[in-house]
Amino acid sequence: MKINADFTQRASAHAATTPWAASPMAGVERRMLDRVGEEVARATTIVRFAPNSSFSAHTHGGGEEYLVLEGVFQDEDGDFPVGSYVRNPPTSRHTPSAAEGCTIFVKLCQFDPDDRCAVRIESAAQTPAPAEGRRGVGVIPLHRDAREDVRIETWAPGARVALDAPGGLEALTISGGFSESGEAFAAQSWLRLPPGGRLDAVAGPEGARVWIKTGHLKDLAAA
After folding, report:
1. Which parts form a coiled-coil structure per UniProt (predicted)?
2. What's the burial of 70, exposed, middle or buried (CB within 10 Å: 0-12/13-18/19+)?
3. pTM value?
4. Domain boundary at 88, 122, 156, which?
5. Same structural domain for residues 107 and 145?
């Protein structure tokens, strides 16, 4: 299966208006944003767990990264409420569930094979720091290494946000909205720019809270 699999091209998706598709596990549905592969795939997805649903125990050979958008995600490491950002590196294993239901934004099989850095951050408890030289932008750092930079940015109403993306860029709207290249991005809308791209966005009247990752696409060609 290939969905938005050419990483040399701009890609976008608006998950909140996309029908849910069933997964192999009862009570777990998903909205696919990009994907290369079948059930074990390099994938970027929004996943919804119904109350009392779960996935079987499994190992993430290529790593797992997720942000909790709604509800509380759970596994052996504890409860992860809205705003939790988690990185489970390659070889990690867990049994995910959601007693009360939840929705997460998740990226699979996208880690460096040697990465063993686990991350647990409750971003909802963090106060954004003003971004140097970027008016109306606040930043909550989530993860940074030689390969990529992951953060949440808050954009003030009407803020103009320009970012060069020599290594590519992904953005997921958490709340509020923005426009880019004449396209409107509301909550759960996703944008991917290829290496060498540039983000030129304007925040909407409510501002925007946006998950952003940069740098990670520089070694990818069309899949």
Report:
1. none
2. middle
3. 0.95
4. 122
5. no
Instruction: Looking at the structure, tell me whether residues 133 and 115 fall in a common domain.
Output: no
- Taking only the tens place, the pLDDT of each residue in 52-99 is 998 888 898 999 999 999 999 999 989 999 999 999 999 999 999 999
In this structure, what token pair is assigned to residue 134? 């970027």
Q: How far is CA 58 from CA 43, 62, 101, 103, 147, in A?
A: 16, 12, 20, 19, 26
Mark whether 168 and 181 lie in a shared domain: yes
Percent residues over pLDDT 90 in the chain? 89
Q: What is the mean pLDDT of residues 132-147?
A: 96
One domain, residues 106 and 72: yes
Question: Does the structure show a pLDDT above 80 at 4?
Answer: yes
Query: CB of 27 within 8 A of CB of 53?
Result: yes
Q: What mean pLDDT do residues 180-188 have?
A: 97
The per-residue pLDDT for 40 is 66
